[in-house]
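Dear colleague,

Thank you for sharing your sequence with our group. We've completed the structure prediction you requested, and as agreed, I am returning the results in plain text so they can be pasted directly into your records. Please verify that the sequence below matches your submission; if there's any discrepancy, let me know and we will rerun it promptly.
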Amino acid sequence: MEEFDIEADMIGKSLEYYYRVPYMKYDSEHELPVDLLENIGVSYLKSNLWLPVAGDKDEAVILIDDPSDYQRIMEIQGVVNARNYVFRVGLPEHIIKFLRGEGGDEYEEGFDDIFSGMDEGGIELDDSDEDDEDEGLAATSAIIQLVNRIITEAERMGASDIHIEPGKDAAPGGVRIRDDGICREILKIPKEHCAALIARVKVISRLNIAEKRLLQDGKCKLKVRGKKLELRVATVPTVQGESAVLRLLAAGSAMPLDKLNLTPTNHEQVIELSSHPHGLFLVVGPTGSGKTTTLHAVLGYINKPERKIWTAEDLVEITQPGLQQVQKIPKIDFTFATAMRAFLRADPDVILIGEMRDEETASIGVEASLTGHLVLSTLHTNSAPETITRLLDLGLDPVNFSDALLGVLAQRLMRTLCPKCKAPYKPDKKELDHLIDAYGNQEQFDEDFKDLDLGTHELMGAVGCDACGGTGYKGRTSIHELLVGSHDLQGMIYKKADLDDIRAQALKDGMRTMKQDGIYKIFTGFSDYEQLLRVVAE
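Please find the predicted structure tokens below.
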């Protein structure tokens, strides 16, 4: 429904046609039969996704998400115990909504309701026994509901992080989420409840509630709206009190390579590089720039039964059938370097290493690529040419490295215009000249945009609607910079050439910078120049 913008009723009608059972949508005015629900637990109905919506003991009308599930139907007959049954098909979300009115749902209460409940409880902080008080506060129903609600709302909004921050002195604290790379506030927390909120976060992530002076890290796994979610939690003591950051990591499957929004040239080159039987291919960029997503898209493309693929990751977020994936565990000295050595004894064809942050891991990766394996990895560098100088500075042998390198893909994530409200406009000459000037090379611009009529071409601009919260932007797309390890470039690596010379050679070999790629995506209507400047330098 979200990805393809399909209405619930359209899906309901399809289910009706498929199951040959009438569709029933959610109606807030509909009254459920009290006598049929009398001895049935709401949590049981939620987990089994059915409920009586009308009728009596003579004929019960049952709403269910799958009317062909005979095992559940037999169970329903045993629980409801009516003489006759009539079935209706409904969406799981609608069934939950009906049940919410019956038994309430701690995950779906509004923030105002939760705060009113907290006020009624008369919660007060007692400095004399602060630690015990925090534990007690963390266990109160209202605080539990508030934390659940914050996590649910953040997941629904597609946030990557939740920031819980204390206010200055007596000022209220705040909850901010990072959505599409931008932080925005969703809630103010009364000062007297901030400590209890942080304590609850510590409880679910198994941290020490009593310790407020040290940095702490933890994690927890939970289910939100039927989706598995892992939270990485970091607490930091500030002068105003403890602050917490929760990173939301949704377990998911790999994105197809053709959904990465690579330009046609870059797409062809990535496919060509990943089809090599051996060599080193790197994806680089800052934290949260989509490196892991890109690498798993490449793995998804080359993942065939005839290729044995091993991966070692700091956190296995994306899983794929056919891959052997392991997770780094520093506590027992199971590092990337340890994993690489183990993989080389396990008959690999392709190896993915989460990050090459030290000389040991990088050296083993280069050696593995020279002994007949395709090695994929990431690095935190700002551009593709910088990656080469960084690895040489780590102490890699330039001869081996130059032979091993296939290519380096640098990337960033740029906010995209909301597809529902973006509007075309005719740019004036000044704006067009500025974009062409920012591209940096008139000859390359003419080559890349040879089919573009600048006299009639329209760009897209932000408008703002309910879907994007009035911002005009929704979602992000990647911009790329692909350096291919050509013969000339390999010779320069061997000689430890300067960064500027390596960059000049890469551009000569056909590399387009991230800024140029971003301008290409502005002309194709994905975003605007303002968003490009947020992620690349002027």
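Summary note from our side: Residues 103-110, 116-132 have pLDDT under 50 and may be disordered.

Kind regards,
the structure core
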